[in-house]
Backbone:
């Protein structure tokens, strides 16, 4: 081969390699990253300054968010989130609020095929977001992403997900406490579970109280969420008492539970959260808010359609100040 022909040959090879490299770079930029370890927002900064009905609002940067998820598995496998509660901590006014989202909420979530390739966003049950993760951590992040998108891309700073294997240990952290049964959804289990009766919650019956439901009854998750509300109220009050009586000891025991939780809360931050829970104003009657919506019988499963007007009011009241 002549020198001239050889030069042309290598020039063609170089052009092909350069084209392949450029395509690879483009694909790398646009291809969904299944393993990202942080929650993304579709419009990262737009939430900071918004306009609603001609009025200007600024995001309250004193707010700290923690999404708590109860995952319906007993091991490290991916599962659905039966509990999706967003804890909002107002560090300026020292107040705590919990926004509770129904697992049956029909909202956009990111879905993936069997190989892990993103298929984009699709309206599905919110509980399913976690099941699309390749790990429980990734499932928690996908749920955070879905909730963030639902509340106008406000970032979820912290998350904590626990499966059923950790339930008893978390109950043991606070010991027993009493609650008033809110409805008759568990009446078939005995007289003590009839509406209005007082029942003592222990590590033996806590899971039954917050998780049980009759799936043959339409919209049974709604009554279960009412039980979860009174449970959270009792749990928070009992945890506060433990912290007030022995703060360091309770924090040490709580830190020991981190290994049972999928979370980005560090060991050093457990004490900070404990202090906020102990000191911040919180009343389940006013501050545990089930996001409003309407129930609908779906083709295969119950559906909960969030009231966008009420959600807008809730977001503005919780996260924003009017200019």
Residues:
């Amino acid at each position: 081969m002549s020198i001239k022909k050889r030069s042309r040959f290598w020039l063609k090879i170089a052009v092909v390699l350069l084209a392949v490299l450029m395509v690879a770079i483009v694909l790398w930029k646009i291809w969904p990253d299944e393993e990202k370890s942080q929650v993304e927002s579709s419009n990262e900064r737009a939430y900071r300054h918004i306009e609603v009905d001609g009025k200007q609002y600024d995001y309250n940067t004193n707010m700290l968010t923690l999404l708590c998820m109860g995952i319906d598995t007993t091991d490290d496998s991916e599962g659905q989130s039966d509990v999706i509660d967003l804890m909002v901590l107002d560090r300026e006014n020292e107040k705590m609020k919990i926004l509770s989202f129904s697992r049956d909420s029909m909202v956009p979530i990111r879905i993936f095929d069997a190989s892990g390739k993103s298929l984009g966003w699709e309206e599905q049950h919110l509980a399913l977001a976690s099941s699309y993760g390749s790990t429980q951590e990734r499932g928690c992040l996908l749920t955070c992403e879905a909730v963030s998108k639902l509340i106008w891309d406000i970032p979820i700073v912290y998350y904590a997900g626990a499966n059923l294997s950790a339930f008893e240990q978390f109950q043991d952290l606070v010991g027993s406490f009493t609650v008033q049964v809110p409805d008759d959804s568990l009446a078939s289990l005995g007289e003590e579970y009839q509406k209005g009766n007082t029942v003592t919650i222990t590590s033996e019956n806590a899971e039954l109280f917050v998780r049980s439901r009759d799936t043959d009854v339409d919209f049974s998750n709604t009554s279960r969420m009412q039980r979860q509300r009174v449970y959270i109220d009792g749990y928070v009050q009992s945890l506060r008492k433990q912290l007030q009586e022995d703060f360091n000891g309770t924090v040490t025991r709580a830190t020991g539970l981190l290994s049972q939780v999928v979370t980005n809360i560090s060991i050093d931050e457990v004490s900070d959260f404990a202090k906020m829970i102990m000191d911040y104003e919180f009343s389940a009657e006013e501050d545990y808010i089930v996001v409003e919506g309407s129930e609908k019988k779906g083709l295969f499963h119950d559906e909960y359609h969030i009231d966008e007007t009420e959600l807008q009011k809730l977001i503005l009241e919780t996260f924003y100040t009017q200019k």
